[in-house]
Amino acid sequence: MKDYIKIHENDNVIVALKEIAAGTVVEVSGAKVTAAENIPAGHKMALTDIAEGGDVIKYGFRIGNAKEDIKAGSWIHTHNIKTALGDLLEYTYEPVGAKENTSEDVTFMGYNRPNGKVGVRNEIWIIPTVGCVNNIATALAKAANQRIKGSVEEVIAFPHPYGCSQMGDDQEHTRTILADLINHPNAGGVLVLGLGCENSNIDVLKDYIGEVDPNRVKFLVCQETENEMETGAKLLDELISYASSFEREPISVSKLIIGMKCGGSDGFSGITANPLVGKFSDLLISKKGTTILTEVPEMFGAETLLMNRCENKELFEETVKLINDFKQYFKSNNQTIYENPSPGNKKGGISTLEDKSLGCTQKSGSAPVKGVLAYGQRVEKAGLNLLSAPGNDLVASTALAASGAHIVLFTTGRGTPFASPVPTVKISSNSALAGKKKNWIDFNAGVLVEDKDIDETAKELFDYVVAVASGKKVCSEEAGFHDMAIFKQGVTL
User: Do residues 252 and 164 lie in contact, with contact meaning Cβ atoms separated by under 8 Å?
Assistant: First the structure.
């Protein structure tokens, strides 16, 4: 294992792969630099003198400006670097001619649905229309899991606190996300559970759901039945009987939709886990599959790299809107656009939002951008798509599922146990985390700083994802975790 890495030939910093002690002589590209102080693992050390106001370069791009004169060998972090980003910006389309490769098709064992969609799980979902019936949903799921049969894997309730006392776009987003989940093909059957007096009641929600198969989707209004537990149990038994008729069969990976997200990132994330997911994305797209990248605030500072990979100018303009609309959201709420990275990110070695974003966006690989999605919009175009959603882990992962992702790949340097409505693969950026939290981490990308080949490891990740799509449970599923969260933006009445 190397002690440090210079990521790009134009960088004026290196990243410590393990702690560099003060006085250690580092040789990079024939030049020798002595560490002036201890450099923690994942953190940056200056290779040259950088004058106050000068650019700090990592990944070949500016990640901020020096707050003061920085001497070669110095630790570079939040104490001596600041963001160089502005607010709303003007952008110019400068296409780089990104191209897709092609490779041989592969199959996974999934579920073909009557409407032409495919699923990687055959679960029964209980979707409450309002938080008031959350406990009923949870109790119904617990009881019904004693009665599952055939290929039905689990009955899952997705409680949330919304569906009433909301206004405008906030309420629209709740209805859209709930409808998206009701239509998700990982659910072989769905019980939509309402109270009856809520704003987003079942009659209202049906307009968002669209046409449904009455064998697959059942509706229950609790205020309209004498005993909602008895009625709910009967409806769930009908859904279980219907869904149990589905069996896994070979399906082309071109049908797979994979969401990509990171959280609890550290200084290794942009070196190992995120580039690995980028390689995975390119590999799946080469087989005509689809990936979705989200968390827009963590594109700030690296957005032009995505904009210039847009397949055409129309998509470029949609991406500009994606970025500037999210910045305006911050401004309209009187919040600092660049209030990022998080305390955990900083502890792990990420110093500015540019530093974080340039690492984050590597999950997109090198393929052209084929689609730009609004929050709650379902994916339609194969290839790489960009999705409007915040950086919050649960909200963004739910948004990926709502847009159609069968599985979410979640890279992390700090670790997290959370789940989402779909299988959520945790990919560690470092081997220490993978060793410590074996009950959280599904795949270790830390091997990439232990001289493991990235293309070989990407193939291993691809094979792992195919196994998950074919039924292998990830750690959070084994633990029985299933989370969902909706983007709360507006007034609560």
Answer: no
